[in-house]
Design a protein that fits this description.
With about 525 residues, the protein is of the alpha+beta class. Helix content is about 50%, strand content about 20%. It has three domains: about 100 residues; about 120 residues, PAS domain (Beta-Lactamase, 2-Layer Sandwich), CATH 3.30.450.20; about 170 residues, Alpha-Beta Plaits, CATH 3.30.70.
């Protein structure tokens, strides 16, 4: 007869197993919770990004509509002026009284309210006909002063009488404003999104600095005067933030807090964009609460799914602990690597021009100089300054200056090789690092760089500005102690280009310039201070 022995399990073993299982289950629960948090963060960022894109795209599309509307009206009126030119000449020919002929001609125009028709005596500049008070009380006969006041005009002389017939820019602006305002009022957005336009009358801010021209959601607010001192439901000054943002960058995202119908506070996300030709600030806003509601709904759904799987996967997780740990570690590494990659891109690439940053440039210069010291060939070094850049900034504004820098960088990238490096050193100063470029080929390459800059044309209003640059080239020399020695020679060559009238390049000779040949520079070229110093 077989006897069975009772197997006894040590309490210590049971307790150990229970503790290990509890720890593993806790770790699993924490891991699931962390995954849920990452998922929720990603959902919220995605919803926020979509909301920002929706607001910005809607406003930018309206700006395109404004530009297109004005272009169409200008084209229409240019054609009308051309059509009416001969009819006015014929009316004047058959009349012994030019002034009477002008009045009768004006009355005969079906759209005479759109026209600006003037007449004055050419001998003494006495105004004979100016029903809209366009010339004022002190007309001096200078027709060039009226050029910007008309989108299309024709000047006719009949004896001593000078007649000006055309469509004023103010007329076109008024018509575009009316058309665009009607379009905005017709917009229907989901939920509580809205589009509105403020006209700025005083860019320094303060009381009555602007007026609400049109509001798609609340027409009753139209014609209301605005103040940068006005506060929202949380005591912030959103209009002051808006004005500061558009003055500094042309556009801005901000939030404002409003009281809802339940006397609670809801947050609104707003995108504001400056439209300078009309002194307009075009705004689009939507409730930030909707983003939270969407994210909350997604969270509940995620919780339900995760709860179903948590119990079933607990046992599997115990068996696959090491595998799951590896996956989680890999997930963390991937997430961190992505963040680090984005940060690295921010360090390496200048946000405005997309040239390499100064920090990247310093690192690359140190690298190629060390390589040169080990016996390798020196790269060609370039320093380039955009000519008269300060005048562009001061005359046309920083937006024009920024556009000029971006276009110069784009043109240079089309001229250089993929192995070359273009660095924004500071302001409008750029440094080029060209590995493997021999001295005998440098002059041809320099002409290519100079020609690339010549292709850049900046259109500002009715003006086309051709850009040029002063450029200097150099190489490392055996006696150099650091990469700065090579850059100083390139800087000498740059200043020779400036002294000789700009819009040219110079190549520093081997060994550098003799003291008597060096340019008269305001100060020696120095490495710029690091950010924050």
């Amino acid at each position: 007869m077989w006897s069975m022995k009772k197997i006894r399990i040590q309490p210590k073993t049971v307790i150990t197993v229970i503790l290990m299982a509890a720890v593993l289950l806790l770790v699993f629960h924490i891991a699931l919770d962390r995954m849920r948090k990452l998922y929720m963060d990603q959902i919220y960022l995605s919803v926020l990004e979509k909301s920002r894109n929706f607001l910005e795209n809607t406003v930018e599309n309206l700006v395109l509509d404004i530009d297109r509307e004005e272009e169409e009206k200008v084209a229409h009126y240019e054609k009308r002026v051309e059509e009416e030119k001969q009819r006015l000449k014929d009316a004047l020919k058959g009349s012994g009284n030019p002034l009477q002929a002008v009045r009768e001609y004006t009355d005969s125009l079906a759209d005479h309210g759109d026209w600006t028709i003037l007449a004055y005596n050419a001998d003494d500049n006495h105004v004979l006909y100016d029903p809209k008070g366009f010339l004022g009380d002190a007309w001096d006969g200078d027709l060039s002063s009226l050029e910007d006041s008309f989108v299309a005009e024709e000047t006719i002389r009949e004896g001593k009488t000078v007649i000006i017939c055309g469509i004023s820019r103010a007329t076109v602006h008024s018509q575009v404003q009316a058309d665009i305002s009607g379009k905005i009022r017709s917009y229907k957005f989901i939920e509580d999104a809205a589009l509105w336009v403020n006209e700025v009358r005083d860019y320094s801010g303060g009381e009555n600095y602007a007026v609400r021209l049109v509001d798609s959601a609340e027409p009753g607010k139209e014609k209301r005067l605005l103040s940068t001192e006005a506060k929202d439901a949380s005591g912030k000054q959103p209009l002051a933030q808006e004005l500061s943002g558009i003055k500094n960058g042309g556009s801005v995202f901000y939030t404002l807090d409003e009281k809802d119908k339940d006397r609670g506070i809801r947050q609104r996300l707003v995108f504001a964009r400056h439209y300078a030709p009309y002194s307009w600030v075009i705004c689009m806003g939507t409730s930030a609460g909707e983003m939270g509601e969407y994210a909350e709904a997604a969270r509940k759904q995620a919780d339900q799914v995760l709860f179903r799987y948590e119990i079933g996967l607990s046992l599997i997780f115990i068996m696959l602990l090491f595998g799951m740990s590896s996956i989680l570690l890999h997930t963390d590494r991937s997430y961190t690597a992505e963040k680090e990659n984005k940060l690295q891109q921010q360090v390496e690439w200048d946000a405005l021009t997309h040239a390499n940053t100064r920090a990247f440039g310093i690192e690359k210069l140190e690298e190629v100089f060390k390589s040169y010291q080990k016996g390798r060939m020196s790269p060609a070094l370039m320093i380039l300054d955009v000519d008269h850049f300060k005048e562009i900034n001061d005359t046309y504004g920083h937006d024009a200056g920024d556009a000029a820098l971006r276009r110069v960088v784009t043109a240079l990238y089309h001229a250089i090789r993929s192995t070359d490096h273009l660095v924004r050193w500071g302001g409008d100063e750029f440094i080029g690092i060209y590995p493997g470029l021999k001295r005998q080929y440098l002059e041809d390459f320099a002409m290519k760089i100079e020609k690339a800059v010549h292709t850049v044309e900046l259109k500002i209003g009715e003006k086309n500005i051709k850009l040029t640059a002063s450029i200097g080239f150099a190489y490392f020399e055996p006696e150099d102690q650091s990469y700065m020695d090579g850059l100083k020679r390139a800087d000498d060559a740059l200043y020779l280009s400036k002294e000789n009238g700009r819009n040219q390049f110079h190549i520093a000779p081997a060994g550098g310039y003799a003291p008597e040949d060096r340019p008269n520079k305001p100060e020696e070229f120095k490495e710029p201070a690091k950010d924050g110093e």
